[in-house]
Every structure is written in structure tokens, then in C-alpha cells.
């Protein structure tokens, strides 16, 4: 799943901008001809917050984007594609009135080969339909109800707003008929030498040549054939906080003629789980950072390069070395940026909400089973498997990605959980045997009732002692958290990372007492957790929930969204950001050897 790039043999043009826009019907009936009306929408952006009309914001079903595209006249004889980086959650692509591609899954890209439907130098009408509908067989799951007055309402089980539309870029690009279709790179280290194993896939029979260049542009290794291994003398490793990237140039050649060329950034590094340690390049690594969201005012989940740069600057300022792509794959630009800047990534699928135990309330005994033919079933698992295939196909070559996260907060203590997840974990290992696999368990799963923890290399846990339980009583919360971590350590003897811990905080609300929602309470809450983490040898990291406040669905416990960010939605720091900065700059990439009383 190669990202479109401009090379000596390929060209691309951005289709980002302002498109014509219309709200469609709930049955997905395609538009024929030009769109009606005067609405226009920005691409990339979620459409929900662009308009003042609540009917558009709350629409359930299809919306339609349309624009006129001219194919460059120099592309005659080339294969021509439309690339949609994300259509949340189902996309359809039309050239004039011809359907040329469909895709299910809102956070991974897809291509439409439109070669036979367009002419170089000519124009065509490009229409993209996007549906935001979620069901029990989609990832993430949801359900649709019809109100008494006939309105369709989308219910979903994840605690972030169901933004929809074309949230990432759309491209028109061309590539040769005989071309490189995929590249897979795996790296290792042998003494002072780096090892770069590669596999190049091509359309048709082709002769392949590869060359590896260092950061100065000097060729340091090369080979021929679609599969091979390159050795790099005196290798410079990709390291957390100190990124170094080589460039692998794969070429299809006919004698001395280059038919196609594709460059790929390569970071040479190793990953290993050994006992209760997580090793990068043979050195113990301690994760500090956040669960994040692609969420900004007006744009929703729309990718924005200015926010990309600013968010990474804030992570550098605060001393974070990593983040999790909660709860879906992020834009490819985010992954590329992490590669270039040495930021470590736990890469997660959109499998959030596989949990009916907390549907409409916490721990109610009359809840439907999560895993059953009527709820999360074999079709759900296949959609989940496809999400894993597409995530790994897209992100397998990123050196920043050190772990795959299969799901967030599934109901892993329920009957049927193991039957659901065991094939998915096995699939993940088959697709990529080089990276550890994890998941994020939810609050009411314990070491004694969890049915799937043994399947994973690293235990990721989301806990809110001092917030959802023992709220305002940090002394009790500390005892509870300490006891639970001890339980996980004793039973599994695996690395543990706290994937989520946090407290909702209203900026500007203060108190000298432990009052929930105040900035002082958020800081004290985090300090308590850090004291506990530092007492447990198996702890390999801490990801605060959340980097920044974010939009959620309507709810009485959500005032203008989730307020657990240490930055506001506009990226202003709360007091806790300064406390985290002091701790994380002090400990760097290494776990504290004694409890951090200075936090």
C-alpha cells in the first residue's frame, strides 16, 4: 500500500481544496450528474462542524463531494489513479457516473484505477460518496435507530465524536504500467553493521534493482532481485529522540533503462521484549507520552499540517517520547513526521467499542453479551481482520512504529472474547512477526477474569483509579492501583504499559483541596500514579489520557467534550503539563529506579 510520491517515473497532483457538497439519502443511492445546491466543503476536513445547519452535523447516511478534474496531458500511456487517504467510514468513487471503487474502513487509504475511464488532457467529474454509518459488523461498531419522527440516529460505543467525511487528502497520480506495487523492509543489527532485508513486489515480470543511500546521499549498499539483504557498514541507528533515516530506492529496470522508481525512508533499529523489559536497539525503553486524537476545532478529524507541527513541538517541549494512535490509524503524514523526529508510536486499529458491558452504564448485569451471533460476531471479526491487514500493509515500514495495538478496551473478561481475539492476534503475528502485539484493557478487567492477556507480548491497561472509582480520594486510589499492578505482575510476568490514566479538568478551575475537575487535582492525580508506577519493575511506560481535550458525543458527563487533556483543545497548557514536563525531562527514555517524589 505505497503512498503516492512524485519520482522520475511517477507524478501526482493534489485534489485538496473546496469541493461541491451535498447531503445524500440514507439508502446510499448515487448521485447522477452535477450535485444540486450551493453547498461547498473543505477537503481535507470532517464536514460536521463546517456548517451552521444541525441537520448536516447530525446527518446519518451518505454525503457527496464533487469537483472537476483535468488529467495532465503528459500522462498518456500511464496508469492513472485516484487516491483517497480516508473516507470515514465507507467510500465510493465515481468518474462521471461510473462507479470505479468502493472501500469500507474510515482510517486507511484506497486507490481507484481510473485509466480506462479518463483521457490524458481531458476533464472528468469526480464524485466521492462517504457514509458515516456504523453497525455491529463494522470497525468501530455501532447501531442505527429510527426516532418516532423518522430521523435516523447513529449510536456508537466509543467516547469520541463520530466525525465523518474526507478528513485526509485526495490525490490524482500516475504510475507506469509495469511498476513497483509494494515494498517490505525489515531491519536488524550485526555488530557495527546494519542489515536491511527487503522484498519488492511488482506488476508483471520485472527486473528489480535496489540501492541504499545515507543521509548525505551517498550510496552505502545495493543489490539486485526482488528479494535480498543489504549490509550497511558502520550503521547509524534510528533511535528514540535521535532519528536517522536512510533512503532505499527500488527500481524496475530493463537493461540500463529505469521503468519505475520508488524511494522509501528506512530506519535501522531493533525491537525486542525480554522478560519485563521493552528493548529498542538492545536498550531498555520507557514510554512517556499520550493517547492522542486527530481532533481540532472546525476541522474535526481533518488533517492539518500546522497542527501536526505544533502538536509535535508540544510533545518535544513536554518531554514525551511516544504516543498511541488512539483509537484508529492516523494520517500518513503523522507517521512520516514521527519517523523523521524519532518519536515512538504504538499503532492501533479502529477496533474501539467492542464492549457492551459498559453500554449505557457501567457493569449492569442485564447487558447483552458482547460476543454473540446477534452482536459482535464472525462478520465483525472479519472486518477487524481486514482493518489489521490494511493497517499493517500501510505502516509496516515505519521505524517509529514499535508495536501493534489490536483493540482498545474490549470486553475481554466476557465469554467468547478468546474465540474472537485469538485468530486476530495470530493474524497480526503472521502479517508482521517483527513487532510485539498489545491491546488496551478496560477498567473492570482484572488479572483474574481477563481471558486474553496471555496472548499478547505487552499488557496495556487503561485505569482511572481516583477518577471513575475513588473520585477525590487519592489515598484510596493509590492503594487500589498499587494492588492491581501487583496482581498483573505476579500472574503474567510481562511488560506493562499504562495506556490511559487521567482526570477531567476545566482550565482555570482551582482549589486548595482535592476537588475533582480542578487543575490541582489533575496534577495530584498524575503524581499519585507516577509514585505507583515507579514502584513496579514491570512498568515500561505511561501514556496520559489525553494529550488535548477533544470532542465527544453528547452526554451529561461530558461538558463540551472530554476534558482529560493536559492541553486544551486549542493547545493551551494546563498546570499538569508543566508537572509532566518536569518529570519526563528528568527521566528521559529510562524508567526511574526509585519512586519519583519530585513529580
From TrEMBL:
It comes from the Bacteria. The keyword Transcription regulation does not apply. Residues 178-269 form the Glycoside hydrolase family 2 immunoglobulin-like beta-sandwich domain. The keyword Metal-binding does not apply. Its EC number is 3.2.1.31. Residues 13-176 form the Glycosyl hydrolases family 2 sugar binding domain. Keywords: Glycosidase, Hydrolase. GO terms for molecular function: beta-glucuronidase activity. Coiled coil: none annotated. InterPro entries: Beta-gal/glucu_dom_sf, Galactose-bd-like_sf, GH, Glyco_hydro_2, Glyco_hydro_2_cat, Glyco_hydro_2_CS, Glyco_hydro_2_N, Ig-like_fold. Residues 271-587 form the Glycoside hydrolase family 2 catalytic domain. Belongs to the glycosyl hydrolase 2 family. This is Beta-glucuronidase. The lineage of its organism: Bacteria, Bacillati, Actinomycetota, Actinomycetes, Mycobacteriales.
